[in-house]
Fold each of these.
Amino acid sequence: MGIFLLPVWRKFGQATLGLVVASLSMSLSDVAVGKEDSLFASQLRAGEIVSVKDVIDGDTVVLTDGRQLRLVGIQAPKLPLGRKGFRAWPMAMAAKTALAALVVEERMQLYIGGRDTDRHGRLLAHMRRVTDGAWVQGEMLGRGMARVYSFADNRAAVTAMLRVESEARTAGRGIWALPYYQPRSHIDAATYINAFQLVWGRVKSVARVRGDVYLNFGDNWRDDFTIKVGARARRLFERENVDLMALQGENVEVRGWLRQENGPMIIITHPEQLAIRPVDIGGGQEGTDDLRYSEK
């Protein structure tokens, strides 16, 4: 059991103002070793069966036919991979080793939940080991070797992945034991511009401007941290019966790329990026490590 950051539509959707904290009733073994059949049946479609030859890093593999496949929905710590001046993120080699142990020389059933190739021509898919049904994304998240990294065109199974990630965070597994990966207070957001981060804080005010919604975390929206929900993303929230204006005063956590736009800002493209944050879990280990990263 652990603490799950409640997706906003679970609290505000369908006119429900229920518990802020949801008990995590699904363990890693439940999700990763076969009881997730309903997830694959309801949200994903089966693709081809492939064999894995090698791994590039903790979230990308090479198939025996030479194609590359990016594990959709997760981000593992990054390796330089020939990029000049790029410093490996902490635990990058450990994540690569963990993925290799799961997939190399194994036959894998692919599952598709959205866009099936990225801009680099790599396949995008969930992977499930043929021999025992192990869900690779679930295994990597549950071991703390990756975090959820989702996109608007590939939302299938993201809530399930967030649950597994939450258990790893609560237990302090893998990357979650390191300051480098801890969620940042909105007060410190400006320190991490051009980086993918989890940022938390209390929404001080909410404003709608020409179809976009802004969640402001300080008195001065020109300098303080802001979450922007564009019109297209706002409509996704509305389909879940979520009134973003009701988030004023709520403690939330958002994940995304920090940019500089009238102060530090994260732009939300889909609801799974935003969650209600229990007020009693604190900030974890504060991110005092001075390492920075900006590579996608």
Note: Confidence is low (pLDDT under 50) at residues 14-34, 282-296.
Amino acid sequence: MSRRYPKRASFAQILAHAVAACFAVCGARTARAGVEQWCAAPAPIADASATTFVIQVPPSAEVRTIVGARVRVAATHPWVGDLAFVLRHPSGVEVELVDRPGIPSVGFPGPWGCGGDDIDAWFDDGSAIAAETRCPLGVAPVLSGVLRPAGQLASLRGRAPQGAWTLVVRDDVAGDVGSLLAACIELDTAPDCNGNGVADAVDIGSGSSMDADGDGVPDECGCVADLNGDGAVNGADLAQLLGAWGPCTGCSADITRDGQVAGDDLAIILSSWGACGAS
């Protein structure tokens, strides 16, 4: 005997989800600085199989690192307990969003997983509601709002945002079919000029990087002691610094920007001697 009679999403449900998905895809970039959304193209979910959806995140003009991540999934399916969703970073690191919600049984409708229709939810580590055990009776989409994923999106922190991300959608039971309407990753990123997986501001704040000129960029990423911009710290820069010795507001020789060219600026010149970027 079948576990249930197969159901299909109504046209009204599909249309409503499609409209919502359009807003998610068309409004790909958010207003907050450092936060952007990138989305996959909608497509059917293969029945009793796995379907891979690609989300391309292009490189930015500067090196950045992930400091936070959320994921939005919108899909039609008449029995969401059949489905599992896994987000894969370009490096291969995976985060399980949800794996057949309602299994083990959470009381409705039984051992086959959550029997409700459709998903339109944000997955966020900060949510108090676990996606795995969410299955409200008579509600569609049955998974909605902001839900806590099965895995930790925090595992993506410190990784580069760019590249081909994938969302793997697995349908483990034949008979019911659905479609992915929206799959978007929202990435909060920060400058990481030295590529160490730590935001520049954190490097500077912790003391692991110096910021002698106070420009918010770790000194190892630039060459603050190259006063004449010729790609090397040498006698010409030393001569420029000595020529400006003493009170000096706004001059390039005041590397530490404390209003005077003095021993601290000289120390930076001497410690940076040689070709810029050389270790």
Note: The chain is about 15% helix and 30% strand.
Amino acid sequence: MKVLKWVGIVLGSLIGLALVAGVVLYFIGDGSVTASHADETFEASALGTADVERGRYLVEDLIGCSGCHGDDLSGVADLMFEFEGQASPMGVLPAPNLTPNGVGGNMDTDGWVRALRHGVGNDGRGLVIMPSGGFATLSGDDLASIIAYLESLPPAGEPVGGRSISTMGKVALGAGLFPDEYKLAQGVEQVEVPRAATAEYGAYLAGITCFDCFFDLSDWSEEDFRRMVSEGVLPDGSAVDPANPDDNPWENVEEVDIDAMWAYVEAEYGG
């Protein structure tokens, strides 16, 4: 009986600790999604020469913003539902309409900079999932070009609804299962590096596209890597995007960028 008593005490203690940890993580996550940064002052961002076509290439072909914001960037009502095909216990997490019919209609240059480089939406709250931690390194020319392209978008769709993150979602955010892009973006400096087939420029592309985040590239050959980019096929023959096997998100990436990416992979992973 004493053994059972001590087992009960241990289990009760563990459950109590788990509940306390859950409450702490909830409040951390809740603070991340509800805190207002509207009155914060951020370091000035360099804005270089804007090239709308360069901005289109970055948004559509290299970074692939349509993967979350929809083909015409008119937004997605619930990313979790879009990716999983069913409602998520994490809550509702929309990708805003970036055109003038959505948040684009209320954004000026400073607003785009705050969203892209600092992870702050036009409502002053920190953004979730939108990779501002990587975009914080955008060069002056690329940042200006992306903004110019976004400001050139024609109206499309309707405004999407707001986000509603559940208790479970806030616990997950507090535990770091979702990136807190506002925190990741703070104190990150812009990167200025010439566009060339170099590992240095490839590292810059890795930062803004995260092309090396999803696969273990350490044992890939150059042929494997180039096939993934040009055909959307992994070394084992499976599609990069199994849900859309005929869709290659990188099919229009230009050769100089592919060369730079591979130079970075070789330098970083010994490919």
Note: The first strand starts at residue 91 and ends at 92.
